[in-house]
Amino acid sequence: MQQYDVIILGAGPAGCATAISLCKKGFKTIILDKKSVSAQPVGENLDVTAKTILSELNLDVRSLDAAHMAAYHSVSLWANKTPVWKDSLFNPNGHGWHLNRAEFDNCLLNTAMQTGVEYLTCEQLEIETDIDQWKINFNVKAEQRSLNCRFLVDCTGRARVLSRKLSVPLFRFDSLMSITSSFECEGNEIATQSIIEAAPNGWWYSACVPGNKRVLSFFTNAKTDYFKMYADANKFYEGIGETTLLKEIVPAKELFSELTFRYANSEKPEKICGSNWISAGDAAAAFDPLSSQGISTALKMGVKAAGAVAVKLSTDSDSALAAYEKTYNDLFDDYLDQRQKYYASVFAWDTNDFWKTNSSINIKSLHN
Ligand SMILES: Cc1cc2nc3c(=O)[nH]c(=O)nc-3n(C[C@H](O)[C@H](O)[C@H](O)COP(=O)(O)OP(=O)(O)OC[C@H]3O[C@@H](n4cnc5c(N)ncnc54)[C@H](O)[C@@H]3O)c2cc1C
Question: Where are the domains of the chain?
Fold first, then answer.
């Protein structure tokens, strides 16, 4: 049985960032992921603030411009009927990107492997714990394998495989869910802007992605009557009629792809580390896509998680783990505060259930 210092579950942005940083510090590290070819990662808007952290992770930032689309402009119709434009021309750091997300995640994983991180795609992963060791059992193409490690990292996103296994309670703050479709993008100026628009029962987001495609999502409260309505392809299309900017750029209904659905609510486990485990990325705190901070926070906190793990493995002190947890808690508290203010700024439909529920902080505690 092979022995590792650290096993990381999940090869998304958080897992790769944690792995690269640990490997650079000299720890024997492997990533295990159940990635399937058909799985499509979501989230395509990468903020320019990610540039610095990507350079630290040895990723060639110039290659982003070649493989992804520069995000120069965005426009939102949110608090009132006046469009608010944002132009990267006025940002000293430059522009962000609309990602080909699968390509971006692959690029991070390749960078991790070039740095010396090992990687396995696995199935039927099981976690066993001993006093000072973790044993991970899994299948690789029907062959049973087991690995041991001193420290385990949960970067499995909203699946939160490890914290579920440890029965860590989860705090859920809202019930946001996305309903998404896409269509061929025209390539004219309005078509390349990302657009956010508030609507009576939720909000719309749309952006172009590489491959001349435009994604279009409606975010609303899951399990409500209005959710059930928009989940129907015809009603989804009709709903675009409630918008001002988006309705100008959508093609005929027949050109829309099938609808897909994703949880997009804010949630956080009560604990995100213990003396021999840690979570990073969505597994530690999942954000509303409105904040557009999921990927950059996953990268940034992956690097911080690696720092805390390195201190623990080198000195046996828990102080860096405690500091890491505090940083994440503070970041999440600030985010919740901002989120609430942002939703509360939409007065046009403030008596509608969607805007009423999202403009206050409601904590629901779920025990796994
Ligand atoms: C609809 C929607 C739109 C979004 N848009 C944006 C956006 O525009 N910009 C932005 O910054 N963020 C956005 N986000 C958030 C962003 O997608 C996440 O914050 C980001 O992907 C988190 O990265 P991660 O590495 O923590 O998790 P993930 O990217 O979810 O990676 C988790 C990895 O764990 C693996 N895994 C899962 N279960 C197991 C298991 N049992 N065993 C082994 N491996 C497992 C998965 O295969 C995956 O590779 C959006 C989210 C949603 C839902």
Answer: 2-43+50-64+101-172+269-333, 176-263
Cβ atoms of residues 33 and 16 within 8 Å:
no
Instruction: Name the CATH topology of 176-263.
Output: D-Amino Acid Oxidase; Chain A, domain 2 (3.30.9)
Quote the CA–CA distance of 43 and 102 in Å, as a whole number.
10
Strands 84-87 and 170-172, sheet pairing = unpaired
| Residue 21 · residue 299 · CB < 8 Å | no
Report the share of the chain in percent with pLDDT over 70: 96
What lines the ligand 1 site, CB under 6 Å? 9-15, 32-35, 39, 41-45, 125, 155-157, 159, 161, 178, 217, 262, 264, 281-283, 289, 292-296, 298
The alpha carbon of 36 and the centre of ligand 1 are apart by a number of angstroms equal to 14
Cα(161)–Cα(7) distance, integer angstroms: 13
Q: Is the pLDDT of residue 368 over 50?
A: no
Atom of ligand 1 nearest to the CA of 39: 47
To which CATH superfamily is domain 2-43+50-64+101-172+269-333 assigned?
FAD/NAD(P)-binding domain (3.50.50.60)
User: What's the rounded mean pLDDT across residues 283-308?
Assistant: 97
Binned at pLDDT 50, 70 and 90, residue 81 comes out as confident
> Cβ–Cβ contacts within 10 Å for residue 200, how many?
13
How far apart are the CA of 1 and the centre of ligand 1, in A? 30
Q: Is the pTM of this model over 0.90?
A: yes
**Per-residue CA distances from 15 to 54, 114, 153, 279 (Å):** 13, 15, 8, 9
CB neighbour burial string for 133-154, b if at least 16 within 10 angstroms, e if fewer: ebebebeeeeeeeebebbbbbb
